[in-house]
Design brief:
Elements: H1 5-33, H2 36-59, H3 66-80, E1 83-87, E2 93-96, H4 109-112, E3 116-120, E4 126-133, E5 139-145, H5 149-202, H6 215-264, H7 271-303, E6 311-313, H8 315-332, E7 336-340, E8 348-350, H9 352-369, E9 375-383, E10 386-393, H10 428-438, E11 442-447, E12 453-460, H11 473-479
Parallel strand pairs: 7-9
Antiparallel strand pairs: 1-2, 1-5, 3-4, 4-5, 6-8, 9-10, 10-12, 11-12
């Protein structure tokens, strides 16, 4: 329970609420403790007493005589519950209505001219005072002890604020807990749905999560749904992969098994039939061997274990070598095969054997799909920070429904097989794309406006600091 996110959110909200209430209570306590209104209230009472006595002395000057003055101030002190001092012009106390009240109250000269303020006695006890100048000479001081702060706070909180503050704090705590629970649920609910979908995915069920809740939960939900789509694509790819491998292996195995059976049961007893059966078995076995090698190559790319031998490479001699090997095939179909490249092209860091395979595959495909009398042209040009190589043909082009999937493994459009004597495995372009990516380049296919297909390869002039070839099959499929 204590490890759940919802419980931790509730506890954190509760801690914040209690901290806020504690800070508010402390602030209220300090405000009451240092509230100047208490002093002002006491000073106002002293002002009233001082004004009353001063008015009386002005109306009846005889009250200022010694015995009468003593009686008047003593009576006023008792009636108003204050302490009254009469000072001479030098500030010495002449009359004190409470001479036995704590220590003597000495008046500093600097306070004689002040109308009110705060004075301290010999024991450092604080007294609030109001001063008035007497009509003849001297000063009349009306004083009272400054209210004890802690006693005032205890009185205010105990009598007035404590109950109200307690009730308000309880209501605020209850409302805050309800809101905290709602917020925690608002945050946790999307995460719980992601957890449920992840558990369902582990059992083979795909369940997208709704995008809701706070922004972080929405981002997590979007990332999870993207991952879910990739997992689904990966599963479909694996299913397609198994189906395609099974289909492409089944056909040659059937041929091998059939002709081998013909040799065993004597059906192919004539020399020419035995030769034909042996030739078919050899050709189909070679085809299976090439497919297995291609699959192993792709598996190494997926696992990131492909080792490339990078060295400075000049593309023009490599392309001339490729066209020289494929010239017999081009001549057989009466196709013009040419390379157009400048002599001053810079070298690039590359694996010569791997790039030779890429260009041989692209040129061979272009020759096979170009009708007699056509042309296949390889062009090389320098671009900023890269070399651009294009393989162009004058064939019918790539069908629009095939073009988006042309680099998928085992994918073969029906039209792409038309007119071919043998059927490939559908792995050549996928391997070529992996090799170009391993060189930090890009391979793409499109149809030229004037007709025919074009494969464009961009290869960087400088090798990146780190070349990563490991990519998951599903991400490869989506990026293709």
């Amino acid at each position: 329970m204590w490890h759940s996110l919802r419980t931790r959110l509730l506890l954190s909200h509760l801690a914040v609420i209690l901290a806020v209430l504690a800070v508010v209570g402390l602030g209220l306590f300090l405000y009451v403790l240092n509230n100047p209104a208490l002093d002002r209230q006491a000073l106002l009472r002293l002002e009233t007493v001082a004004q009353t006595l001063t008015r009386r002395f002005q109306e009846s000057p005889q009250w200022l005589s010694g015995r009468a003055l003593q009686t008047a101030v003593q009576r006023a002190a008792e009636n108003y519950d204050v302490r009254i001092l009469v000072l001479n012009s030098d500030g010495h106390v002449v009359i004190d209505t409470s001479p036995s009240d704590a220590a003597s109250l000495t008046i500093p000269p600097r306070l004689l001219t002040r109308a009110n303020g705060l004075a301290h006695d010999a024991d450092n006890k604080a007294w609030l005072f109001v001063s008035r100048h007497l009509p003849q000479s001297g000063y009349l001081w009306v004083v009272t002890p400054r209210p004890a702060r802690l006693q005032v706070v205890r009185s205010v909180f105990g009598d007035e604020l404590l109950g109200l503050f307690g009730r308000a704090a309880s209501v605020a705590l209850l409302i805050s807990l309800v809101l905290a629970y709602a917020i925690a649920r608002w945050i946790v609910a999307p995460l719980q749905r992601v957890t449920a979908s992840a558990q369902a995915l582990a059992h083979g069920e795909t369940r997208p999560v709704p995008i809701e809740g706070p922004q972080e939960a929405r981002s997590l939900g979007q990332a999870f749904n993207v991952m879910l789509e990739e997992v689904q694509a990966s599963r479909r790819s694996q299913q397609d992969f198994i189906a395609n491998v099974s289909h492409d292996l089944k056909t040659p195995l059937t041929s091998i098994q059939g002709y081998a059976q013909a040799l065993l049961d004597g059906t192919a007893d004539a020399p020419e039939l035995r030769h034909q059966a042996a030739q078919v078995i050899y050709d189909e076995a070679a085809r299976m061997h090439r497919m297995v090698l291609d699959l192993l190559e792709l598996a190494r790319f997926d696992a990131g274990t492909v080792h490339l031998e990078f060295s400075p490479l000049s593309l023009k001699p490599l392309l001339l070598s490729v066209t020289e090997k494929l010239n017999p095939l081009a001549a057989e179909k009466q196709i013009n095969l040419a390379v157009q490249a400048d002599d001053d092209l810079p070298s690039i860091p590359a694996d010569a054997d791997r790039l030779t395979r890429v260009f041989a595959n692209l040129v061979e495909n272009a020759i096979r799909y170009t009708p007699p009398g056509g042309a296949v042209i390889l062009r090389v040009s320098r671009q900023p920070e890269m070399l651009l190589v294009t393989v162009e043909d004058t064939g019918p082009g790539i069908p629009p429904d095939v073009l988006p999937r042309i680099f998928e493994r085992f994918y073969q459009g029906e039209s792409s097989r038309a007119g071919r004597k043998t059927r490939g495995s559908g792995l050549g372009l996928a391997i070529a794309d992996e090799i170009v990516r391993a060189h930090s380049g890009r391979l793409r296919a499109f149809n030229r406006p004037q007709g025919g297909a074009c494969f464009e390869i961009r290869l960087p002039l400088h090798r990146l600091s780190q070349i990563t070839t490991a990519r998951h099959f599903s991400s490869h499929k989506m990026s293709s």
